[in-house]
Amino acid sequence: MKEIETKIPEKIRQKLLEFGAKKVFSGEMKIIKLDFPEFTLKKRGELLRIRQVGDNCELCFKGKKEKALFKVQEEVQIISNDFATTQKIFEKLGFNIVYEGKKHRETYKLKRISFEIDSLDNVPPFLEIEAPTEKEVLYYIEKLGYTLEQTTNKTSAEVEELYKKKHE
Fold first, then answer.
1. Coil, strand, or helix at residue 67?
2. Which residue has the higher pLDDT, 132 or 12?
3. Residues of 21-36 as b/e, b for ≥16 C-beta within 10 angstroms?
4. What burial class does residue 71 get, using C-beta atoms within 10 Å of its C-beta: 0-12 exposed, 13-18 middle, 19+ buried?
5. Are the C-beta atoms of residues 136 and 72 closer than 8 Å to each other?
6. pLDDT digits (tens, 9 = 90+) for 94-150
7. Which 8-state DSSP code applies to residue 69?
């Protein structure tokens, strides 16, 4: 499955509810990213992540981003119920933790579309729209009152890094 998404500044909870979206999650997420000691995944533009979301643990591999208008990349994910054991398995296989962090997320669902409002330290909240097609992402960007030029296809980590540099 390919993931297609973009990010927009957050001020739109009410609009999402007006569209008929349902809030399905609100809470803190614990995140670790793993790589080999030689940073093999990073060099290939890939990512291995373990994330605690409520009672679930998500193990996710993301392939290299495709050159596209939006962030498009292969995503393979499974759900576990044990964050610590999942992490330990990968550490035993020789992976190292290369990032450890937390963020607050609100998730809204509308049919096949996910709207996720993320809050990170020192970064204004932003909205991620994830849909099966670029056409659907673009439709909701415009329906929310934004233009494509007001969006980015950067990852959360890239957005966080941009804000750090901007405010140093």
1. coil
2. 132
3. beeeeeeebebbbbbe
4. buried
5. no
6. 999 999 999 999 999 999 999 999 988 888 888 999 999 999 999 999 999 989 998
7. S
Q: Is the pLDDT of residue 9 over 80?
A: no
- The rounded distance, in Å, linking the Cα atoms of 48 and 94 is 13
Place of tokens 């399905």: 24
Cα separation, 60 vs 78, whole angstroms: 7
127 CB-near residues (< 8 Å, 6+ apart): 7, 8, 9, 10, 12, 115, 116, 117, 118, 144
CA-nearest of 156, 27, 32 to 86 is 32
Using CB atoms within 10 A of its CB, is residue 131 exposed (0-12), middle (13-18) or buried (19+)?
Answer: buried
Please state which architecture CATH assigns to domain 2-166. Beta Barrel (2.40)
Token digits of residue 133: 């097609």
pTM > 0.85: no
